[in-house]
Amino acid sequence: MTGTFETDVLIVGGGPAGSSTALSLLRYTNFKVVVLEQSNLNTMRVGEQVNASIFDILEYMGITKNDFDNETFLPAFDSLAAWGNSNISSRHSIFNTQHDSYQLDRENFDLLLLKKVSESGATVLPRTKALEFSFENGFWEVLLEHQIKGSFKIKAKYIVDASGRQSYVARKVGLDFEQHDELVAVGTFLHFDKNIALTQEIFVETVEDGWWYFATLPDNKVVVSLFSDADIVKEKQLHKAENWVKEILKTKHIQKKLPSSVTIHKIWTRNAFSHFVRMDGQNHFLAVGDAVASFDPISSMGIGFAMSSGSFAAKAIADHSSNPNALKAYEDSIQNILGNYNETKGFYYRKEQRWPDSSFWKKRISF
């Protein structure tokens, strides 16, 4: 593939943030939209708890709950935690005051959003990586590489970075990346026998080096992960199955949720740090979702923020021609959200005082 193609908006990243930006643009403007996704869309995704407000965001984009498979939104009947002490209590995420919550099947959810993007008229390019970016005469020119069809270029009036926590595009164009911690998730997916009836639940338990997360997923799967700091994981080699299992056996509650015969085949490590990208009026550029600001997973802000920030970014782009301050106003709104989040996160972590000498908790209770 050769040549240069033109579009109004190029969105780098086909997750919920990128799809929400695209769907909002396609519904409320006449802009041409191209969505770039580096993966082949087959990556297994960690499920996430969401509240009923997600349906309002979907409705804004012209999507209803009935558009999804029945198992995309599983009622989270129990959301429990042993946080601050060893007793189990009901848990609500630090920004979720709604009682109706759901465990999300991320694979079904993400793929349907992207399907709706394509059906609404956008061009979706999977297995395609953006290599180089330049801005001149009011347009971005981006060099792309498709795994099979080779190199080509896209010329766009606006670029939206929806590349996730690593903020790939923002870094490539030289924006300031402020990382606030070194949180990582070390975990695994477990498949249970179909004859075992799993309770739909989410459970969080704090330990000396962080906190454990257990959640039921569709198809009789669960996800179990330890959230800790990267230096602790490296020092204790917690990415190795035998060490990870030793740590889970120290828990009071999580270990009881796993059958004694379960075999751990693969442990993965994924970034979970908080950060913020300062856009500072970068020409015709916005970042959305985790690419602009990522939050501690304890907040359960991931999907909701990804989708709402995408919708707000789309409106800022739509308003930009008549309001030159629209992009800056969008960035200011993200900073306000981040300020409120940091204050509430500090309050939440300070509830755990049992390990004052732990490097993990020491960093957070003094926040």
Automatic annotation (TrEMBL):
<feature type="domain" description="FAD-binding">
    <location>
        <begin position="6"/>
        <end position="332"/>
    </location>
</feature>
<dbReference type="Pfam" id="PF01494">
    <property type="entry name" value="FAD_binding_3"/>
</dbReference>
<dbReference type="InterPro" id="IPR002938">
    <property type="entry name" value="FAD-bd"/>
</dbReference>
<protein>
    <submittedName>
        <fullName>Lysine-epsilon-oxidase maturase LodB</fullName>
    </submittedName>
</protein>
<dbReference type="InterPro" id="IPR050816">
    <property type="entry name" value="Flavin-dep_Halogenase_NPB"/>
</dbReference>
<dbReference type="InterPro" id="IPR036188">
    <property type="entry name" value="FAD/NAD-bd_sf"/>
</dbReference>
